């Protein structure tokens, strides 16, 4: 492996050089459509309770105060999967403009229905989801209530928020390493996320971190993580087999956090998925972090979740929120039974990562990106 040194005035500049050198030409994962899964309902109380925030603190901000990895992880439900979304969205490099409906005091309810549905469709909610959200709002508010102040968008943020489960940040096990494996399709941002997490736990939480790369299928894939490891001054091991990875974990057993950056796996490639399944079954992983890029269409995202659910990811990290033109396609995913851990809002390491909060995600769906501020 070729080692490089970077002479810069700051860590941020060094991270930027790594990104420019290793990332700019990388492919973005694409998934071939298969059969779409079915959609669940949005009505409050349908299952007796809302699945709001699996982290009892509700809105975590600290990097070491969230999901308890010492306990058994959250498992995903085999029942309903994210819904069908018909449209394919082009990727955009522009931040989406917030689409706010004018205040509708004079509108009749049916006009408002129409307005809500068309605005939700413009936000990339599929037809079924848009109808279900409209039904949910109408179920919770009488016509006079929901046609008034606060706006229907604000009401909808509240409804969507109640259906988003989050984990909070990884809470590390004291006295022994906590092992997190980052999985997902090629190009979704796994290595970048691993580097951001490593930097945050090291620099903000004063934890010791070790990195393991098993991304040996692509040329220079390990070099990219190695460059981040060198800048951060954290040890990194490279492995190809489950045995290698177990040996690497053993070598890094003095670390608080071990992040395993896995090879990008096509969810449509049976052998890739079997290889990944064998790896995560053989290696003692505390937390399986599925990474999804939100520039994918809702249909592709749903199918990816469907394929990856066999390895039972504990949480989803959404990446490339800065590139998505709209985020309505995420709404059915919130019902997939996998809580959200982090969101990635840009290429910059380490700053463009945030602990996922239901309110932020719900607002982002409605076109208001809280991470801009
Ligand atoms: N715009 C944007 N780009 C990102 C984000 N996360 C990662 N990337 C870029 O996506 C490309 C692929 O990232 P990488 O971490 O190598 O993906 P991997 O193949 O899944 O490991 C790189 O150019 C990254 O800089 C993000 O949140 N926003
Ligand atoms: Mg990678």
Question: Outline of this structure?
Answer:
The protein has 373 residues and is of the alpha/beta class. The chain is 33% helix and 12% strand.
How would you characterize the overall build of this protein?
This protein has 373 residues and is α/β, with parallel strands linked by helices. It has two domains: 11-25 and 60-79 and 167-372, P-loop containing nucleotide triphosphate hydrolases (Rossmann fold), CATH 3.40.50.300; 109-162. Helices cover 33% and strands 12% of the residues. The chain is built from eleven helices and ten strands. The strands form two sheets. The protein has an eight-stranded mixed beta sheet, with helices on both faces. Helix 1 packs antiparallel against helix 7 and helix 6 (190-203) packs parallel to helix 7 (221-232). The longest helix is centred in the first third of the chain and has 14 residues, at 109-122. The chain is elongated and about 65 Å long. The two termini are 40 Å apart. 50% of the residues are buried. Magnesium ion is lined by residues 190-191, 215, 221, 261. Guanosine-5'-diphosphate binds next to helix 6.
Record keyword descriptors for this entry.
373 residues; alpha/beta; Rossmann fold; 2 domains; 8-stranded mixed sheet; two-stranded parallel sheet; 10 strands; binds guanosine-5'-diphosphate; binds magnesium ion
């Amino acid at each position: 492996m070729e080692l490089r040194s970077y002479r810069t005035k700051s860590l941020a500049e060094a991270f930027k050089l790594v990104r420019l050198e290793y990332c700019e030409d990388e492919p973005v994962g694409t998934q071939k459509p298969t059969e779409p899964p079915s959609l669940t309902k949005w009505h409050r109380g349908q299952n007796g309770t809302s699945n709001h925030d699996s982290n009892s603190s509700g809105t975590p901000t600290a990097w070491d105060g969230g999901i308890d990895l010492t306990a058994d992880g959250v498992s995903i439900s085999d029942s309903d999967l994210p819904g069908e979304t018909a449209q394919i969205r082009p990727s955009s490099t522009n931040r989406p403009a917030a689409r706010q409906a004018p205040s509708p005091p004079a509108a009749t309810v049916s006009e408002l229905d129409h307005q809500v549905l068309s605005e939700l469709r413009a936000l990339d909610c599929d037809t079924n989801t848009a109808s279900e959200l409209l039904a949910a709002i109408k179920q919770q508010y009488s016509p006079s209530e929901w046609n008034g102040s606060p706006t229907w968008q604000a009401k909808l943020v509240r409804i969507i928020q109640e259906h988003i489960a989050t984990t909070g940040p990884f809470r590390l096990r004291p006295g022994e390493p906590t092992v997190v494996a980052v999985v997902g399709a090629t190009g979704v941002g796994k290595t970048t996320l691993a580097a951001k997490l490593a930097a945050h736990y090291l620099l903000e939480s004063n934890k010791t971190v070790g990195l393991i790369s098993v991304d040996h299928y692509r040329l220079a894939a390990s070099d990219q993580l190695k460059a981040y490891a060198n800048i951060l001054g954290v040890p990194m091991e490279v492995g190809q087999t489950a045995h290698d990875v177990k040996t690497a974990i053993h070598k890094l057993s003095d670390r608080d956090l071990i992040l395993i950056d896995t090879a990008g796996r096509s969810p449509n490639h049976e052998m890739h998925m079997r290889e990944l399944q064998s790896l995560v079954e053989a290696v003692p992983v505390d937390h399986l972090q599925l990474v999804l890029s939100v520039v994918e269409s809702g249909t592709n995202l749903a199918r990816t979740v469907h394929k990856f659910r066999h390895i039972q990811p504990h949480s989803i990290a959404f990446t490339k929120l800065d590139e998505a033109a709209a985020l309505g396609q995420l709404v059915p995913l919130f019902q997939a039974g996998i809580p959200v851990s982090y969101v990635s809002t840009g290429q910059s390491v380490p700053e463009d990562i945030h602990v996922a909060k239901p309110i932020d995600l719900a607002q982002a769906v409605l076109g208001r990106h809280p991470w801009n501020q």
